[in-house]
Amino acid sequence: MIRDARVLRAGFVPREVEHRDAEVNHLSSVLEPITNDEPADTAIVTGPSGAGKTCISKFVTERLREEVLDVEATYVNCWRNHTRFRALYQILDDLGTTIDIHRQSTPHDELTNRLQEYDGPRTVVILDEVDQLEDPSIIYTLHDLPQFAIICIANTEEELFSQIDDRLVSRLRSSEHVRMDKYHDDQLFDILRARAKWGLDEDVIVDDQLYRIADAAAGDARLAIGILRTAASKADRENCDRITDDILLDSAEDARAQIKQKSLESLTPHQRVVYEIVRDHGPIGPSEIHEHYSDDVDDPRTKRTVRTYLSKMVQYNLLEAEGTSRDREYSIVDSKVASPMG
DNA sequence: GCTCCACCGGAAATTTAGGGAA
DNA sequence: TTCCCTAAATTTCCGGTGGAGC
Q: Within 142-201 of chain A, which residues have Cβ less than 7 Å from strand B?
């Protein structure tokens, strides 16, 4: 029943982007100077999750590379590569200049030097989830090098600007800003129908079901496609020739759980223990968290380190904090959005 | 208004981990 | 193996914040 599984994967970039013509054209025009071997402006792409920020950024750069020979592109997920070293390493790795760079014994400056010395084709650097960078100075470094055009992707402008220093803020304010909104239900339906058409056999899923997925996903294309993918593979495993309503209902829950699971996998064992304490006992204050935590592990870290864990998990949207001082309490983020799938 | 105190988070110091060279 | 180097993680220290109780 699954014709082409790639189409249903999260990172898939389609040949045609639906309902984002204005944004695609806007971003293309910002990068346009590159086609004449001239430096391009930095672009900032903002919008809620699942609005298609990553998708159109990759789409536009891929199309650019089809049109022009001497253009490179590199994609950095700053959430996974949140240190300056890892982000720089990822870029240099894509450019093929990391042959003799080793993770542990190469100074930071060496990576910066490599970047400055780079004299290959002009390169578009997509910095996804850029507000997750621990040290945003990498934006500054790249911004100064005419060889690189940067696309900064973040949820909101405020989140991005709150992380970086004033000098850079004033520079970025003059950058081109592509704003994206959540998809409407009918737009999401079109996206799903296109994916179903290429990814699944005919009649595996009916329009009414696609509408219900669009409705349940509340404007989030990543979630919508995740639900479709989960439903298709579930039906495939169960040897059904079409997706039943029961399967669809289960898949909506599973797809949400999967997205959260991905975040949890990036936590260290100690961080995981802290998360589980908050999940089981929350809302709960920091002292109590540390007491439970010290009981649960053999070699507990200090309160200060646990505070760092907690603020990190708040940033990752796994936990939420209420109160500012002595009244502060942590609880897990409730991802159960009312689901109209039934 | 004052003091206490749990908590926050920045900065610097220290420890840990992992790779290369001799 | 041992020594040396560096990034990353952690700890130590500490000033700042803001409820709670008086």
A: none
